Each structure stands twice: as C-alpha cells, then as structure tokens.
UniProtKB/TrEMBL annotation, chain A:
This is Amino acid ABC transporter permease. InterPro entries: AA_ABC_transptr_permease_3TM (IPR010065), ArtM/GltK/GlnP/TcyL/YhdX-like (IPR043429), MetI-like (IPR000515), MetI-like_sf (IPR035906). The keyword Membrane applies. Keywords: Cell membrane, Membrane, Transmembrane, Transmembrane helix, Transport. Belongs to the binding-protein-dependent transport system permease family. PROSITE patterns: ABC_TM1 (PS50928).
Length: 288, 234
C-alpha cells in the first residue's frame, strides 16, 4: 500500500513495521493491564459492587433513565431539524430583514456554550416569572437552539453546493421561489448532507448527558445515584462502566444508521449514476 | 421593588445599570472564573495537540496494528459524552488509589482525552487533502522520507489543517464549561458562586455567555484570517 506519507514498504521496512506493530501491542496492552489491575486491586470487579445492578427495580430505573435520554434526544432532534431548516431558508432569503436576524441568530447560538445555554433556561428564567421550566424543557430547548443553528449552516452549505442550473431550471418552468426551495433545492441538499446531519444527531445524543448538570433525570443522573450507595460499596466505577456501555452502544448504533443511510443512498436508483453529490469540503467534522 | 413600581419610566435604564453593577461588584469572581477557564483551555489544548498528534500519526501510519489501535481509541472516545468522561475521572479516579489529583487536573485530563480525538481526526483529514501526486513527485526527484515530509507534504497539510483545527479549539473552549458541573471554579460555575451573594442568575449567566461570545468571535476572526491567507489553490 502506498500513500501520501509513505511508499510501498520494501523488505527492510516490512521488518521494521513488524517490530513497530509488536511494540504498539505491548505498550497498549501494558496500559490496559495497568488500568484493569488497578480496577481489580480496588475491587471494582467484586460481586458486592455489582450486586446493586442485579436488582430488577434498579434495572427498571436505569431503563427509565435511558427512556428519558432518548426522549430528550428525539424531541431535540425533531425541533433542531425544523429550526435548522427555517434558519437555513431564512439566511438564504434575499430580504435583508429576514436574512440578517437569521444570520445573527445562528452565529450567536453557536458561540454560547451549550451548558451555559441550558443554565440560562433552567436557572435564569424562573426568577423572571417564567413558569413551568423543567429540566427536560431546559435540556431540549438548549439542544434545539444550539444544534438548530449548527444544522442551519449544514443545510445552507448543502443548498449552496448545488449547481446553479438546478434553481434556474426550476424558475424556467415557472416555479415560484418557495417552490424551487421546497421541491428542488432542499431535497437534494438534505440528501447531499445526510452523513453530516446524522453525525450531528450523534452530537445531540451525546450532549443530552449535559442534562446531568442541570439535574435532568437521565442515565448519568441515575449512575451517580446508584454509584453513591454506600451499603453496596459505592460502586461509582461500575456505574460509570454501565453508563459508558449504554452511551457508546447508542452512539455506535446511530453511527451505524448513518453508514447504512449513506450506503442506501449510494445504491439508490433515484439518484442516477454519475450525479453523485459530494458534501462540500470542511463540513465533514461535526461541531462538538 | 416598591420604588421601581413607583417610577416605571426609569426601568430600562435602571435595569441596565443594575446589570452592570452585578458585573462590577463581583468582578473578583468573574475574573477568577475566566482565569480558570483560560488555564483549562490552554493546558488542555497543549496536551490535546500532543496526544492528538500521536493518535493522528498512528491513524495514518504504515503499520496496520497502529492504525487499528488509533481507530479504536478515536471511535470509543468520540462516541462517549464528555460529561461521562468527566464523571469517570472526577468521581471514579479517586477510588482507584492512585496519586491524588486536584479537580482542575482531572478536568484537564478529561478535556485532553476527549479533544485529542478531534485533533487526530483533523490532522488525518488534512494530510488526506494532499494529493498523492505531490508525494510521488517528491520521491521522483529523489527527496528522502524526512525531506518529502517536511518540504512538500506537511506545509500543504498544515494549511489545510489550520482552519478546522481552530474549530476544534473553539469547541474545547466551550467544553471547558462542563467542568463547572464537576467542582472546578471556572466560568460555568460563576452562577453558583454568585447565587450565594444573592445576584440574579440570569444577569450573571448572560454576562458569562457574552464573554464566551466575544472569545469565540475572536477565535473565529483568527480562523477567517488564516483561511484567506493560507488558502491552497489547486
């Protein structure tokens, strides 16, 4: 194999690479072994610390917490997609009184840290007389404002990456501006940006964990609760492991869906061969 | 409250005045908060760059085992919420009987491990933007490995890497606020500190948000500057 960085290896390089491979394995195994040894030494794998997770009631509570996480994720996803579409279309409007506010809105909410946003909603609004702010509302609103703004930029980049002929053809057959946007540009833009959109959904799923800090009853919240039960040996590390398996599992599942969507699109008969749309450069890395 | 109701026409100006007072009367807490944020940001950025370069190097290395290890690390950590990494280090680490570390140090470890994956991916993407022909041409004129790397490939990759790398650091700056939930007295924790002094949460939080907006705008301006200056024309 040849790449930008190195040529196809010759016999000496092959030998050296083998040694490097062995060395890497040894170093990584040593680190892993040290961590596992420390875990074992402090009894993180002992039955007492894991017993609490065998109780059906505890398991149900954790399932409930997963449900809460997914609820916040689902609500925030739908709302951010809607907000993102509205803002993207707004930013592309030719009327200045529409596109300027949309521009400032996206710039502002991408710059404020998501946690501060959630805190503003959760701690800041109730004293001003705003009623009924639950942690759920704070988490979903914060996620929506931030990710809606990020997705708006994604949609906009997608629309702008389309060839001009697309909208010109639409106008030529007599479609109105909104018709061109809704039936010509947006469907293609969404399709082109699908991988980026789904990886932004993974970001939403991960960021629901911030709800832990504004007391939303999600996975980490329960992990902290069960992890601090002294009579079961304060199993905080087992609790973190459980939470990690759940989160990584959910995120990998979502990433798998992204791969599948990408694969299906590249094999779709609706998209003729040769017109394969490529996401514009620089949009591949999702905003964290 | 009574006075305010008695003279309603003065309200907007007084509200603004009191918001400024909230900032000025508690400037000590605001400055310590943002000083700690700056420390978290700079130290984590340096370590994330180092670790990220190592992992990124593994991701593009000719040794398959190294590539696999790099991929596993990036995929696991990128699919873990930052809050959970903090959770593990702040609550779990002290139980392991290792060297005692303060909360800010644990926060730096969490931020470093998380951000390093993004640094690694940005580096890899940047190296991949250099066309294979560039390296082949360098080899064809007889440049040895180190020279083709330092004279031909890395200068081009660096230009492509710089703007997205600043995006990674903007994200890191915003992510430092997560430390507020884990006993580090940085900018995100200013609200909790000031609610003891009886300051209105919304005013305090809006000031914090304002400073972050200014800082992010500053970093974005630098990014735009370099984007224009270093645009690679192909």
């Amino acid at each position: 194999m040849s790449s930008v960085l190195f040529d196809a290896p010759g016999p000496a390089a092959v030998r050296r690479n083998k040694w490097l491979a062995v060395l890497t394995v040894i170093v990584v195994l040593a680190i892993l072994a040290f961590v596992l040894y420390k875990f074992a030494e402090t009894g993180q794998f002992s039955a007492t610390k894991w017993r609490i997770f065998t109780f059906p009631l505890v398991q149900q509570t954790i399932l409930g917490a997963i449900g809460n996480t997914l609820q916040a994720f689902a609500a925030a996803t739908v709302l951010s997609l809607v907000l993102g579409l509205v803002l993207a279309v707004g930013r592309l409007s030719e009327r200045r009184w529409i596109n300027t506010p949309c521009h400032w809105f996206t710039e502002l909410f991408r710059a404020i840290p998501l946690l501060i946003l959630m805190m503003i909603i959760y701690y800041g609004l109730p004293p001003l007389g705003v009623q009924g702010i639950t942690p759920f509302i704070a988490v979903v609103t914060g996620l929506t404002l931030y990710n809606g703004s990020v997705l708006a930029e994604v949609f906009r980049a997608g629309i702008q990456s389309l060839p001009r002929g697309q909208s010109e053809a639409g106008y030529a057959i007599g479609l109105t501006k909104s018709n061109v946007m809704s039936s010509i540009l947006l469907p293609q833009a969404v399709r082109a940006m699908m991988p980026v959109i789904v990886s932004q959904l993974v970001v939403i799923l991960k960021d629901t964990a911030l709800g832990f800090i504004v007391t939303y009853d999600e996975i980490l919240f329960q992990a902290k609760f069960f992890g601090s039960q002294v009579q079961y040996g304060s199993p905080i590390i087992p609790a973190a492991m459980v939470a990690a398996v759940i989160y990584i599992g959910l995120c990998l599942l979502l990433a798998g869906v992204a791969k599948w969507v990408e694969w299906r699109m590249s094999h779709s008969r609706k998209i003729a061969a040769g017109t394969h749309l490529v996401a514009p450069a620089g949009t591949g890395i999702p905003q964290v | 409250m009574v006075r305010r109701l008695a003279r309603p026409h003065h309200r907007p100006a007084r509200k603004w005045q009191r918001s400024v007072d909230t900032l000025l009367n508690n400037l000590d807490i605001f400055t310590t908060g943002f000083k700690n944020t700056a420390i978290l940001f700079v130290v984590s950025a340096v370590f994330a760059l180092i670790l990220g370069t190592i992992v990124g190097g593994m991701r593009v290395s000719p040794v398959p085992v190294m590539r696999a290890m790099g991929t596993v690390y990036v995929n696991i950590v990128r699919n873990t919420p930052l809050t959970l990494i903090f959770f593990f280090f702040v609550f779990g680490y002290p139980k392991l009987g290792l060297a005692e570390l303060s909360y800010p140090v644990l926060a730096i470890i969490a931020l470093t491990l998380y951000t390093a994956t993004y640094v690694a991916e940005t580096l890899r993407a940047g190296i991949n933007t250099v066309p294979l022909g560039q390296a082949e041409a360098a080899r064809a004129i007889g440049l040895p490995f180190m020279q083709s790397l330092s004279l031909v490939i890395l200068p081009q990759a660096f230009r492509a890497v710089m703007p997205p790398m600043i995006s990674v650091f903007i994200a890191l700056l915003k992510n430092t606020t997560v430390a507020a939930g884990f006993s580090v007295a940085e900018a995100g924790a200013i609200r909790a500190n000031l609610s003891e002094r009886g300051e209105p949460a919304i005013v305090v939080l809006l000031w914090v948000a304002f400073v972050f907006v200014v800082l992010v705008a500053l970093l974005s301006a630098i990014q735009h500057h370099f984007e224009k200056k270093w645009q690679v024309t192909r």
